[in-house]
Design goal:
- By secondary structure, the chain is an alpha/beta fold.
- It contains eight helices and 15 strands.
- It has helices spanning 10-21, 47-54, 68-76, 93-96, 119-125, 161-184, 217-226, 294-300; strands spanning 2-7, 25-30, 35-37, 42-44, 59-60, 81-85, 103-107, 130-137, 147-154, 234-237, 240-249, 264-266, 271-273, 278-286, 292-293.
- The strands form three sheets. A seven-stranded mixed β-sheet has the order 5-2-1-6-7-8-9, sandwiched between helices. Strands 10, 11, 12, 13, 14 and 15 form a six-stranded antiparallel β-sheet that branches.
- Helix 1 (10-21) packs parallel to helix 6 (161-184).
């Protein structure tokens, strides 16, 4: 099958590479345009664009995938299907209807649970035990099309959004190639989604990642993992932002049985009172610095019991 690949971030690279190694042909790639990055703010191509260029594939990088010029260039690629993995835009009907086999999407959840932009983060935040990958036929809705294939993957107790995304990327790559093989052979059974079971995974922003120490310890521990690596769960210490990447259950020092949430109730490692329970700051990142152990951070800043985070 001849396919045009649509994708942008690192998650999509595994699928593109699997497609390139398969018996299917990649006619070209559609990705997001270069964006300023780094201290110099120089425009940088997406991870998918870099792989495509290294493979001498035609690359289309429109601001919006629409308009006569773009549609004409897309049609010239002569694809049998569009393969989409985290492209970053909802495709319009004129794109979905162009290839013979339509558009096939790799989505990092077990649809209809966690439709939307941030399914991995939302699954960890919610305390889900299992997630997975869905291969679906795209329609005009937000991840509402019929399911072609699914595969489950356990969420481990120490999974971050980064580690879980990496595993799901590999699963999605394998499952996508299998779906194209079976689609070409006429062996795919398309299963409509049950909209009554749908949940949604909106984009994650920095404001949402601020830790509310009045929340139960279990929720805060999941938040630190769910927002790792981006945008990073955070709090404040003496007016400066402190990112928190790993929290662990802990006990309080004597004399701190009843304190306001966010209070430091022990050091080495620094321990914080939550709404229910106590957590140790296992890995943090102060403003302008790199990741470090919580104990090293506390020693370098004279953190003492009684101080409060979030002020």
């Amino acid at each position: 099958m001849r396919a045009v690949f649509w994708g942008s971030p690192a998650f999509a690279v595994a699928t593109l590479e699997a497609l390139l190694e398969s018996r299917h042909e990649v006619a070209g790639v559609v990705t997001r345009p270069p964006r300023p990055k780094g201290r110099g703010r120089k425009p940088a191509p997406t991870p998918v664009a870099r792989v495509a260029e290294a493979s001498d594939l035609p690359v289309l990088a429109p601001e919006k995938p629409r308009g006569e010029s773009f549609l004409g260039r897309l049609a010239d690629l002569g694809a049998d299907a569009c393969v989409v993995a985290a492209y970053g835009e909802i495709l319009r009907p004129e794109v979905l209807g162009m290839p013979l086999h339509g558009a096939i999407n790799v989505h990092a959840s077990l649809l209809p649970r966690w439709r939307g932009a941030a399914p991995v983060t939302r699954a960890i935040l919610a305390g889900d035990r299992v997630t997975g990958v869905t291969i679906m036929r795209m329609d005009e809705g937000l991840d509402t099309g019929p399911i072609l294939l699914q595969r489950e993957e356990p969420i481990r107790a120490d999974d971050t959004a980064g580690s879980l995304t990496d595993r799901l990327a590999g699963i999605g790559a394998d499952l996508l190639v299998e779906a194209l093989d079976r689609l070409e052979a006429g062996e795919i059974v398309e299963t409509p989604q049950d909209d009554a079971l749908a949940t949604y995974a909106p984009k994650v922003g920095s404001e949402e990642a601020e830790l509310d120490w009045a929340r139960p310890a279990a929720e805060l521990e999941r938040a630190a993992r769910a927002f790792d690596p981006w945008p990073g769960a955070w709090t404040t210490w003496r007016g400066e932002r402190l990112k928190v990447y790993r929290l662990e259950p802990a006990s309080r020092s004597a004399g701190f049985s009843d304190v306001v949430s966010g209070t430091i109730v022990g050091v080495d490692p620094p321990r914080v009172a939550a709404g229910e329970g106590t957590l140790a700051l296992a890995e943090v990142q102060p403003a302008g610095g790199g990741r470090m152990g919580g104990a090293a951070w506390a020693r370098g800043r004279d953190v003492e019991p009684g101080g409060r985070l979030g002020e």
